[in-house]
Write a structure and sequence with these properties.
With 414 residues, the chain is α/β, with parallel strands linked by helices. The protein folds into two domains: 3-189 and 307-395, Aminopeptidase, CATH 3.40.630; 192-305, Alpha-Beta Plaits (2-Layer Sandwich). It is built from nine helices and 14 strands. It has an eight-stranded mixed beta sheet, with helices on both faces. Strands 9-10-8-11 form a four-stranded antiparallel beta sheet, covered by helices on one side. The protein has a two-stranded antiparallel ribbon with strand order 7-12. A hairpin with a 3-residue loop joins strand 1 (52-57) and strand 2 (61-67). Helix 1 packs antiparallel against helix 3, helix 3 (107-123) packs across helix 9 (381-395) and helix 7 (312-326) packs across helix 9. The two termini are 12 Å apart. The structure holds zinc ion (2 copies). Residues 105, 107, 140, 172 line the site of one zinc ion. One zinc ion (ZN) binds at residues 105, 141, 369-370.
């Protein structure tokens, strides 16, 4: 498949554009569901390439469709567009020009790679099979309260239908992985997450006479340690779960027992059956603790993100293609992580492959996503383009054909 040689040839000419686009997005970051300017740049770029473009989907979502010249499969590629409420500490000439907002999760990388992938594939469209659907979603970083996450909204708007996609791909930058490397998970990639609310209702009384009331602050202290004990000893240690509380509130005055304490937390799991087991077990325990303390204890859990699972068969094909595109030594196996990502809504609807692109300068200290000091290495951009364009071109063929190695390591044939 000398098509991949052509992709390789194109890469050199597109490196400058990758960097320029990334820096431009970096300077004008926008918060979740406010990605108006970003979506405008994306739509214009795709229109200029001659793609069929739809805008305003689930907020500022954009979809661009590119058709190959031969029949094949419909393959989608997703990029997220939103930034975070952080004040950037990195001092570059392309640092954020919007006070208090920063692309600290690498979505500026995702945008640039997706757009230039669309350019590269449209340059080669006479040689390509199938259809490419570029999905640019708003609000990945947890939407404002009362609004729906971008992926969920776009799935509901039907972006994976008519005709249905055979595969959807997504990429995220990884600050703890060297540039030129890719990490992938064969199946479970990231945790499912619930927002948990624990309410403990006691009985107010004078602070001097606690025996006349029920102190929900004391009960909450007991219940919190009981919950961690339950997770550690009643759930099989081979099934990871995390339940942490990030906020607690209750009471009005130092010398009055509070009436009610409310805690909000985050519950994460890698299997739906384990989620059920934990919630059912906890509810049973809470009933007992309620009886023992005299406080009313209620627990509710709202699923926020499904578990992010790659399709095992698509994963095998994608990994075989990546091995050919980049060489086996650039691929690392990903252990399921307890973080979550709303790409899981796409993955719940269509066969998906989500992978990580290394953005750490080799030898440098690792950095963290969502940090005001996040400064990914732009040398990663061409690697992301190579992986995305190569995967899309390979997977849109009517039959999966293992692409031949381009450049470097020993060829793999299949
Ligand atoms: Zn993020
Ligand atoms: Zn992100």
């Amino acid at each position: 498949m000398d098509l991949l040689k052509e992709i390789q040839t194109q890469l050199a000419g597109l490196a400058g554009e990758l960097t320029a686009l990334r820096r431009q997005f970096h300077q004008y970051p926008e918060l979740s569901h406010q990605e108006e300017r970003t979506a405008g740049v994306v739509a214009q770029y795709l229109q200029d390439l001659g793609l069929n473009v739809q805008t305003g989907i689930a907020g500022h979502g954009v979809v661009g469709t590119l058709r190959g010249s031969r029949p094949g499969r419909v393959v989608a590629y997703r990029a997220d567009m939103d930034a975070l409420p952080l004040t950037e500490k990195v001092k570059t000439s392309w640092r954020s020009r919007v006070p208090g907002v920063m692309h600290a999760c690498g979505h500026d990388f995702h945008l640039s790679i997706a757009l230039v992938t669309a350019r590269l594939l449209s340059n080669l469209k006479d040689r390509l099979a199938g259809e490419f659907r570029f999905i640019f979603q708003p609000a990945e970083e947890g939407p404002p309260r009362g609004e729906v996450s971008g992926a969920r909204g776009m799935v509901a708007a039907g972006v994976l239908d008519n005709p249905p996609v055979a595969a959807i791909l997504g990429l995220h930058v990884a600050p703890n992985l060297d540039v030129g490397h890719i990490r992938y998970g064969p199946e479970v990639v990231m945790a499912g997450a619930d927002r948990v609310i624990l309410t403990i209702t006691g009985k107010a009384a004078h602070g001097a006479t606690p025996h006349r009331g029920v102190d929900p602050i004391l009960v909450s202290a007991q219940v919190l340690t009981q919950i961690q004990g339950f997770l550690a000893q009643k759930i099989d240690a081979r099934h990871p779960v995390v339940l942490t509380f990030g906020s607690i509130s209750g009471g009005t005055r130092f010398n009055i027992l509070a009436e009610k304490v409310t805690l909000e937390g985050s519950f994460r799991y890698l299997e739906d059956a384990v989620r059920q087991e934990v919630l059912a077990g906890l509810k049973k325990q809470l009933a007992g603790w309620s009886q023992a303390t005299g406080a009313k204890i209620e627990l509710s859990a709202q699923p926020i993100y499904p578990i992010l699972k790659n399709d095992p068969q698509l994963s095998q094909q994608a990994v075989a293609a990546l091995r050919s595109l980049l060489g086996a030594k650039r691929l690392k196996l990903h252990q399921p992580a307890m973080g979550s990502e709303d790409f899981s809504y796409f993955a719940a609807q269509a066969p998906a492959f989500y992978f990580f692109l290394g953005v750490r300068t080799p030898g440098a200290q690792g950095q963290a996503l969502h940090s005001p000091e996040f400064a990914p290495d732009e040398a990663a951009l061409p690697w992301g383009l190579r992986a995305a364009a190569g995967l899309l071109a390979a997977l849109s063929e009517p039959e999966f054909i293992l692409p031949q190695m381009v450049g470097g390591a020993s060829p793999t044939r299949g």
